[in-house]
Amino acid sequence: MITNLARDVQAFTSNVFLVTGDRTVLVDTGANFDVVDAVRSEVDDLDAVVLTHTHRDHVGNLAAVKDAFGVEAWGYDPGIDGVDHAIADEETVRLGDRDYVALHTPGHKNDHLCFYADDGGVLFAGDLIFQNGSFGRTDLEEGDRATLIESIDRVRDRIDSDLAEMHTGHGPSVTSDPDDHVELAGQMARQA
């Protein structure tokens, strides 16, 4: 089961996805709200934190989550403060009851990862792709439009047309034809 713990938060934060099952994992920790209480309202414990990337709005609560639950964080670059273990490109990561392949997708930030489960058709897109063809900012440090387009193309080529769910770093999750939103993001990024 996937629950967005930040869905009703009014403060500036990323989405925070609690993925329950065999391995209870928090995908990103958000910022500027009490995510520890939000997690505790759903589950007693966490097995790990997995990060799409380390922009402040995605990791502002990381230290509090690690302290409260005694968990370690997994991300692309363990050289970044707070990231305990590396997730390599194409590595398999267990989130809940599914195995996801980690896809290194820079362009918004160098350490950006997307997570895709072919079984079940689920994509955690982070800040690469959003609803209605929106895409991650490239005007921040480490942002690069050409690299972002390559990353969107990589995800588009990897997912199946039966993609059922796309969970994004901001805004609503997409459960109606999410592959169309991925395709549109590639088109829009080329035109912007």
Automatic annotation (TrEMBL):
<feature type="domain" description="Metallo-beta-lactamase">
    <location>
        <begin position="13"/>
        <end position="167"/>
    </location>
</feature>
<dbReference type="Pfam" id="PF00753">
    <property type="entry name" value="Lactamase_B"/>
</dbReference>
<protein>
    <submittedName>
        <fullName>Glyoxylase, beta-lactamase superfamily II</fullName>
    </submittedName>
</protein>
<dbReference type="GO" id="GO:0046872">
    <property type="term" value="F:metal ion binding"/>
</dbReference>
<dbReference type="InterPro" id="IPR051453">
    <property type="entry name" value="MBL_Glyoxalase_II"/>
</dbReference>
<dbReference type="GO" id="GO:0016787">
    <property type="term" value="F:hydrolase activity"/>
</dbReference>
<dbReference type="InterPro" id="IPR036866">
    <property type="entry name" value="RibonucZ/Hydroxyglut_hydro"/>
</dbReference>
<dbReference type="InterPro" id="IPR001279">
    <property type="entry name" value="Metallo-B-lactamas"/>
</dbReference>
<keyword id="KW-0479">Metal-binding</keyword>
<keyword id="KW-0378">Hydrolase</keyword>
<keyword id="KW-0862">Zinc</keyword>
